[in-house]
Amino acid sequence: MSIKSTTPVSLGVIIGNRDFFPDKLVGECRTDLLDIFQKVGVKPIMLDESQTKLGGVETFQEAQKCAELFRKHADEIMGILVVLPNFGDERGVAETLKLARLDVPVLIQAYPDDLNRMDVARRRDAWCGKISVCNNLYQFGIKYSLTTKHVVHPSDPSFATDLTNFVATCRVVKGMRNVRIGAVGARPGGFNTVRYSEKILQRHGISVVTVDLSQILGNANKLTKDDQSVKERLEAIKAYTPTGRTPDDKLVQIAKLDVVLADFMAEHALDATAIQCWTSLQQNYGCNVCTSMSIMSENMLPSACEVDVTGTLSMYAMQLASGSPSALVDWNNNYADDENKCVLFHCGNWAKSFLPDIEISTAPILGTTVGEENTYGALAGRTPASPLTFGRISTDDPKGIIKAYIGEGALTDDALNTFGNRAVAKINNLQNLMQYVCRNGFEHHVVMNASKTAGILKEALSNYMGWEVYEHQS
């Protein structure tokens, strides 16, 4: 499944050339590229035809010109596309990338030869040239991606898919290297499973900003129902979801907390949050924060409960890959005796995109210990059939690494008579997946996204982030 960018993404473009191959292939290539760029939403940053021979890159001097152009647009370029209309000069490509020093994903494309046009005037030999370019990038220590087909014309539908997926890979890599996550409150005492290493995350560009839950609740308690900010958030909540039987005073509590969380995120320029819920919020404030978390996740600011920082990091990665919200769920129940199905569940913080029947409710399980009247704000709703990408990122402290697993399946419409946020997932070889999760010490939380983006995530997290990634094969 390809993911089309909603806004143009800037890619640096290197058109390789080699002097003993026909130059006109470079000019034809530029026309082909401009057409596909317009279709998939790419803004190219490439040499003008007057700057080098037809805008191609062959010599070291041309590599210098191209690298200088890329450096001028360094803040804009998210990835680089290397195009080989003929064999290309592998040194020119490698030197350009080395001199540009951008450290962004690189996609290598090579043109196919026409079996009926293998004469000197039209012969490309890009099949061979691509191998040489990749060999040089490997020697230089430059990471790169490949098209599905070894050689492919830009007009081939598979290249459009490759290019849009590459753009998604670039989004994931850029986002993960700069993400800022707010950790609101301490990890609940009964949840050792969500422990993680801030230091390992920071080494990979992932920053965690902490705040004591008492500070958040204290600021919320200073607000009143008459404050304009509270009134505005209350109206936004009512516009977001039916409130069910939730009392007005509980809605005001939820709105006040929402104001303070929004202020905290804005103050620290956060991309995501992980919030202490179980059970301090209910005991010390008297409501659940699920509704606010759902709204944030729906607005592409993912939020995970139980201070699951690497859980919300997983949500963010999947969101970047797909362009749609993610949800943190529990691997929760077997589905009767079907070994390839299971129940996904949480008290009620999933994004609205997963819940066509969304409604503010309570958390009955939590309510048995803290009083159900203190759990208003949890959401109820059933997720219907849809595509499924699932996965989890975790820090493995004994190994000093970040690791992950990802895979694809489907959400189904199978009958499910229970409460909260709920879904039924069908994943082939599910029993083997659970063996892997358990043997490798992963958390009981997993993330779901209504997409087919496991390949994008594998490429971004394994190839470019350098993490240990297991892709479940179904």
From TrEMBL:
It comes from the Bacteria. Residues 344-471 form the L-fucose isomerase C-terminal domain. Pfam families: Fucose_iso_C (PF02952). SUPFAM superfamilies: FucI/AraA N-terminal and middle domains. Keywords: Carbohydrate metabolism, Isomerase. InterPro entries: Fuc_isomerase_C, Fucose_isomerase_N/cen_sf. One of its GO terms (cellular component) is cytoplasm. One of its GO terms (biological process) is fucose metabolic process. One of its GO terms (molecular function) is L-fucose isomerase activity. The keyword GTP-binding does not apply. This is Fucose isomerase.
